[in-house]
């Protein structure tokens, strides 16, 4: 009967989590961000041709503008896109499903790793994860890191079993996770040795540890083969704070350069990693990037601060127990890739911290239940859960859906509809906006082969070698580039840009005719479109030049 109760409660928690992740999935966020559109369109081209947008056959890394991304999300999403059609919903389903499955794995980890006085502590911790703004947010868009979180969670769970077959399977999932998100290439290299050093025994000896590590290396062999190319390192190098370290090292004149650089790195890394344990960042401020945060909400619900802090205290008391050390090690290792990037608090790169945080929260809940009893704990959890859901509903489905629409590229779907409905030629000004071609290709569902024939000409040095990105694209009846005010006004076409691309003076000077404008839910101008009038322009005597016929 106890098993049935726990099973039913877990099912209820998963149902709540699934609802929060799938409800209006294709509508909120109100647009798709550029990387999401690239993932979606590549899934579309692979579903149609087996090749990515650049006509490369199942690449180890996917070219993504001037960098490269991990391919696993695209490969798993391709069948869903083939089945459901290319849309914001179809490309997000995989992430929402991964987020929902992670709820179950988090419960298994929390329930297995430490013994609790209260049998409900793992369930409450799992509920906190299920309704966490941090987890829900990244489950509601095509974030590769969210798929990586699921795979890493499975690997961590399997690590809790001492038998070799489980540990080898864990190594396989760690290898698989390395294909899902870039930072997960580093985590296994740290996690496997730490796990062995803490849990080594007669059955788990050095020979077995080497076998496990080799299993991981075999699973990432395709990445190792291209590790000498820019594709392997360009994104990580671009995010690293090397300039900040050099600047700080220059100020440490009393030490040798190498030692000064090491000291500067330690200072920067220490500052960065501590930011991921800052109460202000976790519970109040959230991610400074408006595209990755919810208005008026932190990464975690405010009331979770109490069980988390108590959990840290309880965990510290358990030291030097090997499992307590493993939890602390996971926190440092999972925060390390994020701390190596220049962003001060990136909830995306630190998403994996939700695994050890859930364990710590369970310890805190267990302590509180033991102190105040099941009845008070139950009533408190129900009330706090309801308040959290109300707060999340307001923050995400009301404020975020409208206030953050523009940073989520609201307006491109409407622009794609306008272009598709017209036979005229469009010039999309890309002077200040993110690469618009991939967003339009996504919404217009441009046939894969037609897109690939143009995109493949962009690769000059080699697929994994070329990091140059040319923003000019000419597809169907539109092209993306800066507006040329010397020549474009003498051609019959429609010029499209943001609020600064086309001024009132230019409209009057060049006799432009307004065709449409697109505004976000807050009525902020996103796009304005004007039809050129070369006949009227050339009719004026002072405008007669070589472009007039």
UniProtKB/TrEMBL annotation:
One of its GO terms (cellular component) is plasma membrane. Keywords: Cell membrane, Glycosyltransferase, Membrane, Transferase, Transmembrane, Transmembrane helix. One of its GO terms (molecular function) is pentosyltransferase activity. It is found in: Cell membrane. It comes from the Bacteria. It comes from Candidatus Woesebacteria bacterium RIFCSPHIGHO2_01_FULL_44_21. One of its GO terms (biological process) is lipopolysaccharide biosynthetic process. This is Uncharacterized protein. The chain crosses the membrane at residues 7-23, 65-86, 93-114, 120-138, 145-162, 182-199, 211-232, 297-316, 323-340, 346-365, 377-396. InterPro entries: LipidA_mod_glycosyltrf_83. It is a multi-pass membrane protein.
């Amino acid at each position: 009967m106890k098993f049935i109760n726990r099973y039913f409660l877990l099912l209820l928690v998963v149902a709540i989590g699934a609802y929060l992740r799938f409800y209006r999935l294709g509508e909120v966020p109100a647009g798709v961000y550029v990387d999401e559109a690239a993932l979606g369109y590549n899934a579309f081209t692979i579903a149609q041709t087996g090749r990515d947008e650049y006509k490369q056959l199942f690449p180890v890394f996917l070219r993504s503008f001037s960098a490269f991304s991990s391919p696993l999300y695209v490969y798993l999403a391709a069948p869903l896109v083939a089945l459901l059609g290319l849309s914001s919903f179809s490309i997000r389903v995989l992430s929402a499903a991964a987020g929902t499955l992670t709820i179950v794995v988090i419960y298994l980890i929390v329930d297995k790793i430490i013994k609790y006085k209260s049998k409900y502590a793992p369930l409450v911790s799992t509920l906190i994860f299920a309704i966490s703004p941090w987890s829900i947010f990244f489950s509601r868009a095509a974030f590769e890191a969210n798929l990586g979180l699921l795979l890493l969670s499975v690997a961590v769970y399997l690590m809790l079993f001492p038998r070799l077959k489980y540990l080898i399977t864990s190594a396989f999932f760690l290898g698989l996770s390395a294909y899902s998100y870039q930072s997960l290439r580093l985590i296994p290299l740290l996690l496997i040795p730490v796990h062995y050093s803490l849990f080594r025994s007669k059955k788990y000896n050095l020979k077995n540890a080497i076998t496990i590590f080799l299993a991981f290396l075999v699973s990432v062999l395709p990445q190792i083969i291209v590790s000498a190319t820019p594709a392997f390192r360009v994104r990580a190098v671009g995010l690293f704070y090397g300039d900040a370290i050099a600047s700080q090292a220059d100020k440490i004149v009393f030490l040798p350069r190498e030692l000064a650089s090491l000291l500067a790195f330690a200072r920067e890394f220490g500052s960065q990693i501590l930011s991921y344990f800052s109460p202000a960042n976790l519970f109040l401020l959230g991610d400074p990037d408006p595209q990755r945060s919810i208005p008026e909400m932190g990464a975690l619900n405010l009331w979770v601060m109490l069980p988390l802090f108590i959990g840290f205290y309880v965990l510290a008391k358990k030291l030097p127990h090997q499992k307590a050390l493993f939890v602390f090690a996971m926190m440092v290792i999972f925060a390390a890739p994020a701390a190596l990037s220049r962003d001060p608090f990136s909830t995306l790169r630190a998403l994996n911290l939700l695994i050890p945080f859930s364990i710590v929260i369970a310890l805190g809940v267990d302590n509180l239940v033991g102190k105040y009893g099941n009845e008070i704990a139950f009533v408190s959890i129900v009330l706090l859960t309801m308040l959290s859901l109300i707060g999340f509903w307001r923050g995400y489905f009301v404020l975020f859906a409208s206030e953050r629409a523009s940073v989520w590229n609201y307006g491109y779907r409407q622009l794609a509809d306008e272009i598709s409905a017209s036979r005229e030629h469009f010039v999309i000004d890309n002077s200040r906006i993110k690469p618009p071609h991939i967003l339009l290709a996504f919404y217009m569902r441009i046939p894969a082969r037609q897109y690939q024939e143009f995109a493949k000409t962009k690769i000059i040095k080699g697929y994994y070698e070329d990091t140059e990105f040319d923003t000019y694209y000419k597809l169907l009846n539109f092209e993306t580039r800066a507006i040329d005010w010397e020549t474009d006004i003498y051609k019959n076409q429609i010029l499209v840009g943001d609020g600064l691309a086309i001024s009132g003076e230019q409209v009057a000077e060049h006799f432009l005719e307004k065709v449409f404008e697109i505004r976000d839910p807050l009525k902020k101008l996103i796009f304005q479109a004007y039809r050129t009038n070369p006949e009227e322009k050339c009719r004026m005597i002072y405008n007669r030049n070589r472009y007039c016929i």
